[in-house]
From TrEMBL:
GO cellular component: mitochondrial inner membrane
Physiological role: Accessory subunit of the mitochondrial membrane respiratory chain NADH dehydrogenase (Complex I), that is believed not to be involved in catalysis. Complex I functions in the transfer of electrons from NADH to the respiratory chain. The immediate electron acceptor for the enzyme is believed to be ubiquinone.
Superkingdom in the source lineage: Eukaryota
Membrane topology qualifier: Peripheral membrane protein
Record's keyword terms, sorted: Acetylation, Electron transport, Membrane, Mitochondrion, Mitochondrion inner membrane, Oxidoreductase, Respiratory chain, Transport
Protein name: NADH dehydrogenase [ubiquinone] 1 alpha subcomplex subunit 7
Compartmental location: Mitochondrion inner membrane
One GO MF term: oxidoreductase activity
The gene coding this protein: Dvir\GJ17063
Length: 103
């Protein structure tokens, strides 16, 4: 026997639905409205941490791979200072993200 859902009287439910302009959704959770707990396990593909051998936290943590931003002005000065010996091989500066070629 399912437990009776708690709500207001049927007449007041119709008045509430009229005033709201829609059917009211009760915020209380009842067992017959919940999903079953016997769902199958998800089949997920293997990720970077699926092999536990020699997989230390400090080597796979993304926060440790963050580096300070590159100062492009200083990089340009270094290229200009060392670029006198080989002018034919002009090195490109690193640019942030994708570059859109404006016409």
């Amino acid at each position: 026997m399912a437990a009776a859902r708690r709500d207001i009287a049927p007449f007041l439910q119709r008045v509430r639905a009229f005033l709201l302009g829609r059917e009211h959704t009760v915020a209380l959770r009842f067992e017959d409205a919940l999903a079953d707990r016997t769902q199958p396990q998800p089949e997920l593909p293997d990720g970077p941490s699926h092999i536990l051998s020699a997989n230390y936290y400090c080597t796979r943590d993304g926060r440790h791979e963050v580096q300070p931003p590159i100062d492009l002005v200083q990089q340009q000065k270094l290229l200009d200072a060392t670029g006198d010996a080989a002018p034919k091989a002009k090195a490109k500066l690193p640019t942030p993200g994708k570059v859109y070629a404006w016409d």
